[in-house]
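seq/struct pair 1
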Amino acid sequence: MKLTSRDNPKVQRWVKLVRDARLRRKEGRLIIEGPHLVQAALEAGLRPHVFLVSEKGMANPEIAALVAKPVILGDRLFAGIVDADNPPGIAAEVSFPTVRKQGDVVFLEGVQDPGNVGAIMRSAAAFGVAAVTLDRACADAWSAKTLRAGMGAHFALQVQTVSSLEEELERFTGRILCAVPRGGVVLAEADLSPPVGWLFGAEGKGVSPEAARHTDLKVTIPMVGGSESLNVAAAAAICLYDAARRRAE
């Protein structure tokens, strides 16, 4: 099938699905962009409802090998649907993945940069975390920018966005550790025995007093003099790596 008109109802819906988080939640579907994400989704067992491929993309052997019965779109029409500045030539409509795992959880409060949210998810998947729980002040977990930063990590994690992070913290049965710039137990000396809930707060503001009430321990990553703090994604990567390293010893 080939579509050429921006006025086509299917095209208009795909445009909204990329840009409208409420529509994604309502339909339980999203658009993923690029060969890497499409490949990661397929390897995770997701079956796309439809592949969208640009005319230029169809000439790419890597893309052609991924798709079955794609909808072919003119290059300009495809570029008008996807979020990427440099259209990747392939996208797919998929349902939200359903992952059920037990283990450590990352809790995010007010992390508003989609790049940071995606990077934290990437670290969480790499170091064996089971789930990531976000509050509604965080960047949308399923936006195109967050998905790109996650590099396929979404498909290996149980991801949920909740209206009350405090309720989720209260419900968690393990110990909750909160990363703070200073004044906490040095990370290397902290008890990281599983299951652990890692709480990371907003860029700049950190964790709110309300959320901090639910923590069992505050941990600090030592830094050389003159360093004010770490980016939240960098701090998360260090904490999650240290936990995984120690458990592997």
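seq/struct pair 2
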Amino acid sequence: MLKGKIAIVTGSTSGIGLGIARALAAQGAGIMLNGFGSPAQIDAVRAEVAGRGVRVGYNGADMSKPVEIAALVEAATRELGRVDILVNNAGIQHVAPVEQFPVEKWDAILAVNLSAAFHAIRLALPQMKERGWGRIVNVASTHGLVASAEKSAYVASKHGIVGFTKSVALETATTGVTCNAICPGWVLTPLVQKQIDELAAREKLGIEQAKVRLLGEKQPSLQFTTPEQIAALAVFLCSESALQIRGAALPVDGGWVAQ
């Protein structure tokens, strides 16, 4: 379905981003990977994604730095020929009461979770509009639709990305470029595993008990959303069937925001 298209997927060396990169590659899209990891890990991921028969590049841009984001878009365009699909997935988290929230953590979370998407979109959008086709998928969160305590920066950044998605969608409404957001609930990524481990230690629970406790607080299905489920939605949003889905914030959350 996406043969000949080129996608940048930020934060794609693990977790949700890697799931999306794999799914887009399976549909024929070339991939510019981005994220952190050891050289051996990155080489393994690159080889695995390339095993789907597509061209795969890697750029280690720090998504908190606009200059490096510009270099990422330039590298994808130079090495792979173009940017048709942009998936803004990179994200970081910190948990603390607002009055104790470290200022540097606030600034970093807003930079990676929100400002990075702005910089990547402003740089990639002109070539999408010029060709009359493009797909922008922002990985937000249920925390872009509802809030939780002690996650002020994350909630602010994810609400921001949902609003930014709508603005970009309106600006591109008469073009062949669409912009939408996916709002996952609990996904068992390294970021969430850390919260499970902390909950288990704090409450003196087993890991499986801590998982159920974490899910029970928010996610009525009591099941984690998988990267593969999110990736399937991202692929659909890149399809022609999704052409009139514009500015949407689509939850994949086991009923979290239905409550």
